[in-house]
Write a structure and sequence with these properties.
The chain has 100 residues and is α+β, with helices and mostly antiparallel strands. Helices cover 14% and strands 14% of the residues. Bound molecules: zinc ion (ZN). Zinc ion binds next to loops.
């Protein structure tokens, strides 16, 4: 199981961007080696546009996964898939202790 993903998804900070979630804020992970992938500014937005994905469909539970990265592959282009991390397993999360 990949429960560690749940720790990756951060709650949204502040007010959601008007017009949808900023693709640049999405977490990108390499499916091959599991490393977080850093893209240059604008790349995520470009890929979303190319894929025809509307920013309105995105939120902080979305995760981009590439089939390789510069750490584990000599390729320059990778296939990118978008996943939505389900909130269905929220019951297994440790209880939160709040400080007012
Ligand atoms: Zn990799």
């Amino acid at each position: 199981m990949r429960e560690s993903m749940l720790t990756i998804t951060q709650p949204l900070r502040g007010v959601p961007a008007p017009g949808g979630y900023d693709p640049e804020m999405l977490f990108v992970e390499c499916a091959r080696c599991g490393a977080p992938v850093m893209w240059e500014p604008g790349k995520a937005t470009r890929i979303m546009n190319m894929a025809g994905i509307d920013a309105l469909e995105l939120d902080s539970s979305c995760l981009l996964v590439t089939d390789g990265c510069s750490l584990c592959s000599a390729e320059k282009e990778f296939t990118v898939q978008i996943f939505r991390v389900s909130a269905g397993s929220a019951a297994s999360l440790p209880p939160r202790t709040g400080n007012a």
